[in-house]
Amino acid sequence: ASLLRRFQSTLVIAEHNNDTLTPITLNTITAAKRLGGEVSCLVAGTSCDKVAQELSEVQGVAKVLVAQHDVYKGFLAEELTPLILETHKKFNYTHICAGASAFGKNLIPRVAGKLDVAPVSDIIEIQSPDTFVRTIYAGNILCTVQCDEAIKVFTVRGTSFEAAPTSGGSASLEK
Fold first, then answer.
1. How far apart are CA 53 and CA 60, in angstroms?
2. S-S: 127 plus which of 12, 51, 131, 166, CB 3.0-4.6 Å?
3. Is the predicted pLDDT of residue 2 greater than 70, yes or no?
4. What is the mean pLDDT of the chain?
5. How far apart are CA 43 and CA 36, in angstroms?
6. Which of 64, 65, 92, 74 is CA-nearest to residue 18?
7. How far is 102 from 126, CA to CA, in rounded Å?
8. Electron transfer flavoprotein alpha/beta-subunit N-terminal domain location, by residue (predicted)?
9. How many domains does the chain have?
10. Is residue 88 situated within a structural domain?
């Protein structure tokens, strides 16, 4: 299992308002770190340098990818999905994830659909790089899901993971 973890790479889609990072992104980074391998964050917006700088200092983030353009103004899944697919094509991530907020719940199924994989929604635990736990039946039952897709695409329940420390990191910024 440790050999498998070494070859993992995860893309976390950062949720923000062009000024500050949404807290659920820090929880998602913690979940991504549990997968092993390198964690990169994608920041897309109109003037999001401040958010990118904030993310570069988060512990566990190796790389912050920044895309700034007016087309990302509304943070629409329809506009962000092609960017995420292009980013994945360039870096060949094994996992793509976002927080299970309205933003992530709108974006991740579209990304998964375009990649022709099944998304895993609202995970609360990571057992291995391909095995996740999520709730079903309004949270009354825990369901362990083993995902055999080539690319694992999922949303993370923010309350199930601690927020990643916002200092001590030294990620590179790529625009």
1. 14
2. 131
3. no
4. 95
5. 21
6. 74
7. 22
8. 10-175
9. 1
10. yes
